[in-house]
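Revision sheet: structure tokens.
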Amino acid sequence: MQGQTQTQTQNQVELPSPPTDSVSCLSWSYSQNFLIASSWDGTLRCWQIENGPAAKAQTNLNSPILNCSCLTEFKVVAGLVDGNVVCWDLATNSSIPIGKCQAGVKTVNWIPEFNLVATGSWDRTVRFWDLRQPNPITVNLPERIYAADWLNSTGVVGLASKQIAIFDIRSSTNPAKIEQSALNHQIRTVAISADSQCFTVGSVEGRANVNFFAPNQNKTFSFKCHRIPMNHQNQQQPVDIYTVNQIHFHPQKFNVFATCGSDGVVFFWDKEQKSRLKAFEKLTLPITCCKFNREGKVFAYSMSYDWSQGYDGFKSDKVSIFAYAVSENDLINGGVRNRKSF
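Predicted:
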């Protein structure tokens, strides 16, 4: 699946004052274009993107941060590797402890419709935190949580056992079902489409899978991505295979989603046409995170080492975060020549 690579330099800016260690999560505010990044250096950082990017605030939580989620314009919840769940109040630049899990908190998602924060931990629990209450609702799962996404009442949680737990918290905080992933290797990321019709799963094998919630929709399919032929003259085998680090759906164009990988590349995809819409220029380090803003007009992504190749693969401690202005042409099939189907 090789398509034409698009030059995006003129349409993007690099944010000032990035973290000093790998970026673990990017989260957009709900109304204003504030971007939050969490990092393994223990910091949460905030930038204002409009009218030229500017660093607005930062705090150090003194432990590597695995994930974060914006609650309001001025409150962010973070999950730490030491198991703590912390709320950062940007207005006062204060950090408020919410609670603690028994192991690292890998996922954090704000569910505004229920006024809940959902966390997923390596202690094999999903916990629902109502910040007005002292204790969370705890749900035990069969394995460690590696990935999660929540939209309205629906949750999709990826487990270390390559299983997917699907939640509908309108009826119960327990999973509605747990099923085996169609992918054969470790789950790295999951994402729910903005119209709640489907979800995608990405793995360390450079492959993604699109699944539909409705049982009568026999549209589930998998496709290869983030793979680079060792011999560029021969597009067949063998190939270098890279981890799919994150998947995120466009909030307005329900058929469009982005993937980023350890190969240093970002792709835009169309799930209905089963085609690749855009390939960003390959960078020198992995792309660890990516996310559209609430309107889908700005796309943020981070470049830093993700340790997918271990210590021997470490080449640079450079960290960069970019904000890319999304054009309509980026989101339509036919806007670029030589786009190929899955």
